[in-house]
Amino acid sequence: MEATGKLTNVQLELIKLFQYNLPDAQLNDIKEILAKYFANLASDEMDKLWEENNWDENTIETWKNEHLRKK
Q: Are 49 and 55 in contact (CB under 8 A)?
């Protein structure tokens, strides 16, 4: 992502939400909530790829044994 000097919609929304100084425990809770949210999004996308490409355990084994070399 390229830095443009402009805040994203997420950044702007978070600024509005966090106009108060939070205790560290609450800040850590919020970080954990956000981390779980984005991890769930990534997991959902992987599930979608698995289903769309008919991947299975054999696919993983094939990937493990591939030798990827740069030319």
A: yes
**Contact (CB, 8 A) for 16 and 22:** no
- pLDDT tens across 21-51, in order? 889 999 899 999 999 999 999 999 999 999 9
Q: What six digits make up the tokens of 44?
A: 């959902």
Q: Is 32 helix (H, G, I), strand (E, B) or coil?
A: helix
Checking 55-61 for CB contacts under 8 A at 24+ apart, the result is none
DSSP code of 23?
P
Residue with tokens 């800040």: 27
What CA–CA distances, in Å, run from 50 to 23, 43, 53? 41, 10, 5
Amino acid, res. 28: N
